[in-house]
Amino acid sequence: MSDRQQLRDRLTQILAALERIPGRFASIKAPQDFLTTEAGREHLDSISMVLLSVGEAFRDIDDRTKGAFLGQYPEIPWRLVIGMRNILAHHYFDVDEEVIFNTCNQNIAPLIAVVQQMLTDLNQEG
């Protein structure tokens, strides 16, 4: 399997994971909604796991391409995406529900759009 095909496959996995977040976030209207019910805590846990996994996948892509691939899409703050993974992995009990809320509310849709564009670009390149 070519490096390009591996990149496509990984981006397809990332996109599928990111596309699960809006459904899990739909019932959350304020940051404290993550903490007030068991369902809210489950949403926080599941969204956090997706963000951790996505951050790890982007870190891997960045390492494998020596920064060249993600650098083609500067509209996303990749260091923050990857940095969130580090916080979720190493400081999970310190996760701020407001940060997760704002990430879901403001950053997931643009990130989904960029991953879709990445896949389109890769498919056009052959």
Automatic annotation (TrEMBL):
It holds the Pfam family HepT-like. InterPro entries: HepT-like, HepT-like_sf, HepT_RNase_toxin. Keywords: Hydrolase, Nuclease, Nucleotide-binding, Phosphoprotein, Toxin-antitoxin system. The keyword Hydrolase applies. Belongs to the HepT RNase toxin family. This is DUF86 domain-containing protein. It comes from Candidatus Synechococcus calcipolaris G9.
